[in-house]
Amino acid sequence: MSESLTLQPLEGGHDCHDPQSPTATLHPQGVGRGCPREHPEGHKGEAVVVEPTSRQQPRTKADKSATTTLRLTEIFLSLQGETSRAGLPTVFVRLTGCPLRCRWCDTTYSFQGGETVTLTSLLARVADYGVPTVCVTGGEPLAQKNCLPLLTALCDAGYSVSLETSGALDVSKVDSRVSRIVDIKPPASGEEARNRWENVAHLTPHDEIKFVLANRADYEWAREVIQAQKLAQVCPILFSPVQGELPPAQLAEWILADRLPVRMQVQLHKILWGNTPGT
Ligand code: SF4
């Protein structure tokens, strides 16, 4: 790929050039979705091939951030309600979209809609909150390819970053500075078949595995998985009861009876504010 090109593809498949090619093609005027680049004078409609020249500068990190976009459902400041970071003031970046449909999902409003934002503007909005801890969540944030540069940019900016992911997509490319909170979906979720077991080999003690459990069958399934995959040797393990289905005290009793090496958690934010978007 030529480093001297300044032309880049736009979001949404608007590929102005083949990234493998040393040349780039400008669209005829009026063609494409609001192509922001200037067209040569007198250019009446035919495609124009532009050869890279020594005057064209490599794109800077700022250039890339200004043209990298993500679909955002919401951004807000709250207390982290789960994981080992529970209780910490945290900026939540909730990205839009999820390829799963867990039966008990509590963020179905993130499946679609949202607003398109640039990475630059998103970083500025995070900075406005003035706290050092950021959680990127969804939906399934990794369903957007630009989630990876977002995570890296947040780490580069000095934030302590966590990522909440369904466990159905590859987590191996996530910046190693990010704490990955990876779900393992039990049978009652309806999405057990989506578990990407290869992810386990990529996890470190810096990450966490989360089981959300709806009933005794889920609990026993999770207990078997922990033993079979020796998960307690991989990273901390979280057990959460599905709200309104499994009483937290019941789950606590099962964990204690079995001496399971897991951290039981209830969702602090729901205790404080109920099941409300933006909390
Ligand atoms: S992975 Fe998360 S956001 Fe997606 S359906 Fe399941 S609970 Fe909802």
Task: Write up this protein.
This protein folds into 2 domains: 1-58, no CATH class; 64-273, Aldolase class I (TIM Barrel, Alpha-Beta Barrel). It has 6 helices and 11 strands. With 279 residues, it is α/β, with parallel strands linked by helices. The strands form 2 sheets. The chain has a 9-stranded mixed β-sheet with strand order 5-3-4-6-7-8-9-10-11. A two-stranded antiparallel ribbon has the order 1-2. The chain has helices at 61-67, 119-129, 147-156, 216-228, 248-258, 268-273, and strands at 24-26, 48-50, 69-79, 89-95, 115-118, 133-137, 160-165, 179-183, 208-213, 237-241, 263-264. The relative contact order is 0.11. Helix 5 (248-258) links the parallel strand 10 and strand 11. The protein binds iron/sulfur cluster.
Biggest sheet features? 9 strands, mixed
Percent range for helical residues? 10-25%
Biggest sheet: strand arrangement: 5-3-4-6-7-8-9-10-11
Shape: globular
Q: Determine the mean pLDDT.
A: 84
Give the CATH H-level superfamily of the largest domain.
Answer: Aldolase class I
Distance between the termini: 44 Å
